[in-house]
């Protein structure tokens, strides 16, 4: 029998970033990597991240969250998933201010009081914490004096398609390549190579970012452990703070991803990143042995 068989799930999305919420607070168990990979298959329950909720470890928090990618690996942060679990908890409890805990720290969320009566969709603001720019914190394989631009490129050596990214940790590692036109970048081709580049010992999320104006960034993301995605909240945060740090934008910007817009405010008073965007319920059900890759009827 699969470990997660018959466990209830809720399917949600944040800007098209596909999220599966597993509320394991009543019966905690680990999410096996092989079951996560099986569940992510097109014929099962395709997702970008699983947000697994466990009993709270700290007073005043709703749950401890573990984030599992489609390849079974664990992530430190997922902005779109954080908004989804905030909406899930608001629908369950009626609370609008909810705090979760993760390996990256506390996730302080506010769900719009004007959400639909059904609770099906809402705008959610999530405090994504403080970005880290030191090479050890990202982490990189070796010392780099200035992480606003590091030596890295993809494509032909004499005419690189992507070069000199900014790097930052926003709960997980991110590399942001500045480009003239994101539509011209084949991130599906270069993303896997860059995600696994030796300079990133824990792999990295790879983004191509186009500065439209001091208030607007257009972003395409290859997400670590998930691949090309319609949206990545932590990547939007990473691009916003990296752009501001490079003097390309102000500290409050709209980031447009294939799935829609996020508003990112890198608060000057304490350097916390506030991300605001939608979250949406899709459907719910129970996990089956077939979905989890186990032969039906085999214990």
UniProtKB/TrEMBL annotation:
Q: Cite a single GO MF annotation.
A: diaminopimelate epimerase activity
Q: Which residues bind substrate?
A: 17, 49, 69, 79-80, 172, 205, 223-224, 233-234
Q: Which UniProt keywords apply?
A: Amino-acid biosynthesis, Cytoplasm, Isomerase, Lysine biosynthesis
User: Transmembrane stretches, by residue range?
Assistant: none
**Annotated localization:** Cytoplasm
Q: Which family does the record assign?
A: Belongs to the diaminopimelate epimerase family.
Matching PANTHER family, A to Z? Answer: DIAMINOPIMELATE EPIMERASE (PTHR31689:SF0), DIAMINOPIMELATE EPIMERASE, CHLOROPLASTIC (PTHR31689)
Question: Can you name this protein?
Answer: Diaminopimelate epimerase
């Amino acid at each position: 029998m699969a470990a997660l068989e018959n466990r209830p799930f809720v399917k949600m999305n944040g800007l098209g970033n596909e999220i599966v919420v597993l509320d394991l607070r009543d019966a905690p168990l680990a999410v096996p990597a092989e079951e996560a990979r099986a569940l992510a298959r097109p014929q099962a329950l395709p997702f970008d991240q699983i947000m697994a909720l466990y009993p709270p470890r700290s007073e005043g928090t709703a749950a401890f969250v573990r984030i599992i990618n489609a390849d079974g690996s664990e992530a430190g942060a997922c902005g779109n998933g954080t908004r989804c679990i905030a909406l899930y908890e608001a629908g369950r409890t009626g609370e609008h201010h909810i705090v979760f805990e993760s390996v990256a720290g506390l996730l302080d969320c506010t769900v719009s009081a004007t959400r639909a009566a059904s609770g099906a969709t809402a705008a959610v603001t999530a405090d994504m914490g403080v970005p880290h720019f030191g090479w050890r914190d990202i982490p990189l394989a070796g010392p780099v004096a200035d992480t606003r631009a590091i030596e890295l490129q993809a494509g032909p050596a004499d005419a690189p398609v992507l070069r000199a990214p900014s790097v930052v940790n926003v709960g997980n590692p991110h590399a942001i390549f500045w480009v003239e036109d994101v539509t011209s970048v084949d991130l599906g081709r270069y993303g896997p190579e860059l995600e696994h580049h030796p300079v990133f010992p824990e792999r990295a999320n790879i983004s191509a970012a186009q500065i439209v104006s001091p208030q607007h960034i257009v972003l395409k993301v290859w997400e670590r452990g998930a691949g090309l995605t319609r949206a990545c909240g932590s990547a939007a945060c990473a691009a916003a703070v990296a752009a501001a740090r490079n003097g390309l934008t102000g500290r409050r910007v709209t980031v447009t991803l294939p799935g829609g817009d996020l508003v990112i405010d890198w608060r000057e008073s304490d350097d916390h990143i506030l991300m605001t965007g939608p979250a949406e319920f899709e459907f719910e059900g129970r996990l089956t042995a077939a979905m989890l890759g186990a032969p039906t009827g085999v214990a």
